TrEMBL record:
Coiled-coil regions listed: none
GO molecular function terms listed in the Swiss-Prot or TrEMBL record: hydroxymethylglutaryl-CoA reductase (NADPH) activity
Protein name: Hydroxymethylglutaryl-CoA reductase (NADPH)
One Pfam family of this chain: HMG-CoA_red
InterPro entries xref list: HMG_CoA_Rdtase, HMG_CoA_Rdtase_NAD(P)-bd_sf, HMG_CoA_Rdtase_sub-bd_dom_sf
Database matches in PANTHER family: 3-HYDROXY-3-METHYLGLUTARYL-COENZYME A REDUCTASE (PTHR10572)
GO annotation terms (biological process): coenzyme A metabolic process
Keywords: Oxidoreductase
Keyword Oxidoreductase: yes
Organism name: Fusarium oxysporum (Fusarium vascular wilt)
């Protein structure tokens, strides 16, 4: 991959101009900020880590990462790691999956009603997808619906593709409308009492083993190799000692 044709000093200068311009635009349009009781902005030092080279991607330039922090040496440490990987050929990235989820819940009078609804759900998926996708012209596409019965409730894990958007708000809007339409169309047939837009099956804004097993958002695999020479020259230790340090830290973390 051809690295960025500009030197690092010029890259940092150009990025600084962009961020300063964006900050000026933001602070000058306080009335357009969509948070409650907004009184102003806080400034945090913003530094650039990198560059990091992506192996096997000739189209992309080297990657720089903005880090907002007051912690001294953090950016230098990240950049040193990038330098070690760059000297060893760069890193590799593969996208494994991409799907944003929402976990609505349908409420029934008893578990038997919940079971009947869950069993009938595959026959409703096309209609649910049509309703959900009607809320966005091109972006939201329903991929799967997975039901889980908990007592008299049926939790649905609805997974969508959202194009290049993160999609949290997009899938909420889509799921809300689809659930409203499903309830309106099938309430009498399946005795649907109520529904909630989220029952935490999607693990929104909380740590979850479910999101370890199946990523919510974009799941990527990133790997690279640090050569003996780069490790010794840039990180100041042997690869054996680096491995032992990482192993020791993991063991201590497990005990803690």
């Amino acid at each position: 991959m051809a690295p960025d044709s500009r030197d690092k000093t010029q890259v940092l200068h150009d990025l600084a101009d962009r961020f300063n311009h964006a900050a000026d635009l933001q602070s000058g349009n306080l009335e357009n900020v969509r948070i409650e009781n907004c009184i102003g902005f806080c400034k945090v030092p913003l530094g650039i880590a990198g560059p990091l080279r992506l192996a096997g991607t000739p189209v992309l330039d080297d990657i720089y990462a903005p880090l907002a922090t007051y912690e001294a040496t953090l950016i230098a440490s990240c950049s040193r790691g990038c330098k070690a990987f760059n000297a060893s050929g760069g890193i590799h990235i593969e996208t494994l999956s991409n799907g944003m989820s929402r976990g609505p819940v349908f409420v029934f009078q008893n578990p038997r009603r919940a079971v009947i609804f869950a069993q009938a759900l595959p026959g409703m998926q096309n209609a649910f997808a049509r309703w959900a996708e009607a809320t966005s012209k091109h972006h939201v596409r329903l991929k799967t619906i997975e039901p889980s019965i908990i007592g008299s409730q049926v939790h649905l894990l609805c997974t969508y593709s959202c194009g290049s958007a993160a999609g949290q708000n997009m899938v909420t809007k889509a799921t809300q409308y689809a659930c409203e339409m499903l309830r309106e169309s099938f309430a009498d047939q399946y005795n649907i009492l109520d529904f909630f837009i989220e029952g935490q099956l999607a693990s929104d804004k909380k740590p979850s083993w479910g999101n370890v097993k199946k990523a919510r958002g974009v799941e990527t695999l990133v790997w690279g190799t640090i050569s003996r020479e780069a490790c010794q020259k840039i990180l100041g230790c042997t690869t054996e000692r680096l491995y032992m340090a990482q192993k020791t830290l993991k063991e201590g973390g497990i005990r803690n």
